[in-house]
């Protein structure tokens, strides 16, 4: 492929700064001398490794009026008009900015109206379309609406329009099998596991202590005395620090965490063990609801700290923690929580809520522990409080996972290189 037509467009009908997998795709394309147009909402800071590259361009998507807070029946009346505006706006962006684009990579979900726009676009413009399946849009709608007519129409929509794609990426083998058997997809499907990018790495003791001290000084000065003495040395008897990242959506089981906090408070009192601090990073709609639940518990030995971290700060803070936590409950059972990859890249063992495809990532008692209930998770935390050496043993398993660049080059880029059809598009 010549330099002239090595141009890729990445479409995320969401916020660029909160779409790490798609940002990593963009970075990998840039490393292989592509120019990249990134179509997304511009709400959070774009990672420096993208914004600082002259071959990267963010194309902002206009965000139309949210109808979620509008009362029935007006929300249903306004929804079709919103979808029409989204459809027309995205279609305009595609026709306006795709000159010379040889490949389009789109995140799914959301599938509405994105897949319809791309199917129509391909009827007029020659381009190679790849769908990156993080989940199915239908399964997410099912969480909210059950099995009503909206979900059934969405299923028909998604399985029909996905066939317009020339190839597909999936985050698990389970998702690949589902697309082949349930959606009847015949075009190539490549399993591209999430892997931690190189910015996630373990820190040495001095780096960890410095990062943790600076973080607590900035976000919660009251907790400093639990971790550090007056000379800024980390205390031997200090809290266990557990981190989880979230977008605060309904596929995260914060009800399990709420119950765990209450149970753990009692267990720590009974065992007279060190406190536990939960650090929760991210933004999203259910954050205030959860924090209201936490405040009602009046916790004393268990602490909850929430923070929004920059792309530069997040990997270092994660590597300064003791244990990762994943509360992700896949709506389809076939995607994987990317936060666990970040944790593994940082050398953190992880306790993860179990579901169908999780064993493709978390190996119980090898790189983390799997739980089903709040009671099981609390037992695991108490075990680590009593036997901290097990954290070090599981950390070795977490560190053994391959990095993003190696995985992407071997799976995604090797496929793209071997598709002559792509080189014919411009």
From TrEMBL:
One Pfam family of this chain: Glyco_trans_1_4
Localization per record: Endoplasmic reticulum membrane
Bilayer topology term: Single-pass membrane protein
Membrane is among the record's keywords: yes
Gene Ontology MF annotations: chitobiosyldiphosphodolichol beta-mannosyltransferase activity
Any one of the GO BP annotations: dolichol-linked oligosaccharide biosynthetic process
GO cellular component term, pick one: cytoplasmic side of endoplasmic reticulum membrane
Keywords: Endoplasmic reticulum, Glycosyltransferase, Membrane, Transferase, Transmembrane, Transmembrane helix
Its EC number(s): 2.4.1.142
Involved pathway(s): Protein modification; protein glycosylation
Transmembrane parts of this sequence: 83-106
This protein's record includes keyword Endoplasmic reticulum: yes
PANTHER family: BETA1,4 MANNOSYLTRANSFERASE, CHITOBIOSYLDIPHOSPHODOLICHOL BETA-MANNOSYLTRANSFERASE
Function: Participates in the formation of the lipid-linked precursor oligosaccharide for N-glycosylation. Involved in assembling the dolichol-pyrophosphate-GlcNAc(2)-Man(5) intermediate on the cytoplasmic surface of the ER.
Protein name per its UniProtKB record: Chitobiosyldiphosphodolichol beta-mannosyltransferase
Biological source species: Rozella allomycis (strain CSF55)
């Amino acid at each position: 492929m010549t330099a002239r037509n090595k141009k890729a467009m990445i479409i995320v009908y969401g916020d660029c700064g909160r779409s790490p997998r798609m940002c990593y795709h963009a970075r990998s394309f840039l490393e292989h001398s592509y120019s990249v147009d990134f179509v997304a909402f511009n709400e959070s800071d774009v990672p420096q490794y993208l914004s600082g590259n002259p071959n990267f361009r963010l194309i902002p998507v206009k965000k139309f009026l949210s109808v979620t807070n509008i009362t029935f029946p007006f929300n249903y009346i306004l929804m079709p008009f919103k979808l029409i505006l989204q459809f027309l706006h995205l279609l305009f962006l595609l026709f306006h900015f795709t000159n010379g684009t040889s490949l389009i990579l789109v995140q799914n979900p959301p599938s509405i109206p994105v897949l319809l726009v791309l199917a129509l676009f391909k009827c007029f413009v020659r381009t190679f379309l790849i769908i990156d399946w993080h989940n199915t849009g239908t399964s997410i709608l099912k969480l909210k609406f059950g099995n009503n007519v909206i979900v059934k129409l969405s299923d028909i929509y998604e399985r029909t329009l996905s066939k317009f794609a020339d190839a597909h990426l999936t985050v698990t083998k389970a998702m690949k099998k589902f697309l082949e058997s349930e959606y009847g997809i015949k075009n190539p499907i490549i399993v591209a596991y999430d892997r931690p990018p190189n910015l996630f790495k373990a820190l040495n003791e001095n780096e960890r202590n410095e990062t943790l001290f600076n973080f607590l000084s900035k976000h919660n000065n009251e907790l400093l005395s639990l971790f550090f003495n007056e000379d800024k040395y980390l205390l031997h008897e200090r809290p266990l620090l557990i981190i989880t990242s979230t977008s605060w959506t309904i596929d995260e089981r914060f009800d399990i965490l709420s119950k765990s906090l209450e149970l753990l408070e009692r267990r720590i009192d009974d065992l007279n063990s060190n406190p536990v601090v939960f650090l929760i990073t991210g933004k999203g709609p259910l954050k205030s609801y959860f924090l209201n639940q936490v405040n009602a518990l009046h916790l004393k030995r268990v602490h909850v700290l929430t923070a929004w971290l920059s792309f530069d700060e997040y990997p270092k803070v994660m590597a300064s923690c003791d244990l990762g936590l994943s509360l992700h409950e896949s709506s389809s059972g076939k995607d994987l929580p990317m936060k666990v990859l970040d944790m593994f890249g940082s050398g953190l063992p992880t306790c993860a809520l179990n579901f169908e495809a999780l064993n493709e990532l978390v190996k119980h008692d090898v790189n983390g522990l799997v739980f089903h209930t709040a009671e099981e998770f609390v037992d695991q935390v108490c075990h680590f409080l009593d036997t901290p050496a097990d954290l070090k043993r599981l950390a070795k398993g977490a560190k053994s996972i391959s990095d993003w660049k190696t995985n992407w080059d071997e799976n995604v880029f090797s496929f793209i290189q071997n598709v002559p059809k792509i080189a014919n598009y411009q």
